[in-house]
Amino acid sequence: MRLYKTTEGIILAHEQQNFHFKGDWDELINHSNLFEFLLQLSSSIEKISDDKLNDLLNTSLLAPIGTQEVWAAGVTYLRSRDARMEEAKDAGGGDFYQKVYDAARPELFFKALPHRIAAHKQEVYIRKDSSWNDKCLAPHRNSFGTRRRSHSP
């Protein structure tokens, strides 16, 4: 089962069938027993063709987020951990990151407010003082002086 948020509403794809309906994204994804709710809902909402699904996904796909903030947990790669630990040591932070990596719970990082999230084919804005930009983003300047990646492949 897959859910998509689009400018035209919500798309449910399940067992080779596609459905379209209007609704509040936050209310939907926070529904108790979401899977069962969507199964029941699918019997009473508009079916759409694969062509219509592809059209909506290519022209009106939004980030799958409503009003919630975006947070991330931990650092995935050993190289990244070692780099963070070296930065902390150089800044006088001692073994702070070692304690984070050895903790029973992951460290959480605030990433963005919902209005800052880039959806499919939207521009990704990068702070102009950032030195950790992915080379594939091919940054260039916008009118605000921040670098951005165009949505072309």
What does the model show?
The chain has three domains: 2-59, no CATH class; 69-114, no CATH class; 123-153, no CATH class. The strands form three sheets. It has a four-stranded antiparallel sheet with strand order 1-2-3-4. The model is unreliable at 137-153 (pLDDT under 50). The chain is built from five helices and nine strands. A hairpin with a 5-residue loop joins β8 (140-141) and β9 (147-149). With 153 residues, the chain is an alpha+beta fold.
Helix-strand blueprint:
Layout: E1 2-6, E2 9-14, E3 17-21, H1 25-29, H2 34-41, E4 46-48, H3 50-59, E5 70-73, H4 78-90, H5 96-102, E6 108-112, E7 124-126, E8 140-141, E9 147-149
Antiparallel strand pairs: 1-2, 2-3, 3-4, 5-6, 7-9, 8-9
Helix pairs in contact: 4-5
Helix fraction, binned, reads 25-40%
Largest sheet: 4 strands, antiparallel
- Seen as an oligomer or otherwise, the chain set is single chain
How many domains make up the 3D coordinates?
Answer: 3
Structural class: alpha+beta
Kindly report the average pLDDT value.
80
Strand content: 15-25%
Distinct helical segment count:
5
Distance separating the two termini: 27 Å
Uncertain segments are 137-153
H-E string: EEEHHEHEHHEEEE
What overall form do the CA principal axes indicate?
elongated
Strand order of the largest sheet: 1-2-3-4
